[in-house]
Amino acid sequence: MDKKLIRDAYKTYWLENGKRPVSVYTFCQQLEVAERSFYDSYSSFDALEKDIWLSFFQDTIDQLKEDEIYRNYSSREKLLTFYFLWVQQLRENRSYILQQKDKYLVPGLHLDRLESFRIAFYDYIRDLIKEGYQTGEIKERKYISDQYVHGFWLQALFVLRYWTNDDSERFEMTDAAIEKAVNLSFQLISSNTLDSLLDFGKFMFARK
């Protein structure tokens, strides 16, 4: 059975019942397929939920790869475009995501649901950072550069949480938040702003 069909059926079940199926067996009974059809694709509902979040990301990346204009963007412009398109993907699944938000928006809890997405996002961000080094858009810093990816992951979680709580028309506030967050992050890693902050921190530490 196709993975997308399973994902879509699972999301539909959540939308109609407000909870996950009691078991894989009952879920497959409703789909009128053999239980092994599910296990050929997923080992559990947890694995399925991780893949749903990964699919939101992967569908976004697949669309970007087809955009010739995107390929010529700077790293900052690419990340902005990614977020805008990713939010569009999320909008198509907003009802499902809102039902799930207690599973991924509680600080420090349940982020395992986002683990597959996180790993893929890190790979994407590492590539953007490498491009930024080559063009001079991002400044490489000893000991600190390796931490950039973690900062961008926190940014992605910020965008997700902000969009989840956004009640503005056409989610205009989310678009504004994305632009401000991305511009600030690139200002920090591409200019002397971060270096100045680090120098100030060292100065204050040395004074103690």
Brief rundown of the structure:
With 208 residues, this protein is an all-alpha fold. It contains eleven helices and no strands.
The radius of gyration over CA amounts to 20 Å
Q: State the distance separating the first and last CA atoms.
A: 64 Å
Task: Note the overall shape.
Answer: elongated
The CATH architecture of the largest domain: Orthogonal Bundle
Helix content: over 70%
* DSSP, total strands: 0
Q: Low-confidence parts lasting 5 or more residues at pLDDT below 50?
A: none
Helix tally equals 11
User: How many domains, in number, for the residues?
Assistant: 2
What CATH calls the topology of the largest domain is: Tetracycline Repressor, domain 2
SS class: mainly alpha
Per CATH, the superfamily of the largest domain is Tetracycline Repressor, domain 2
Output mean pLDDT: 89
Tell me the strand percentage band: under 5%
What is the makeup of the main sheet?
A: none
Helix and strand sequence: HHHHHHHHHHH
Name of the CATH first level of the largest domain? Mainly Alpha
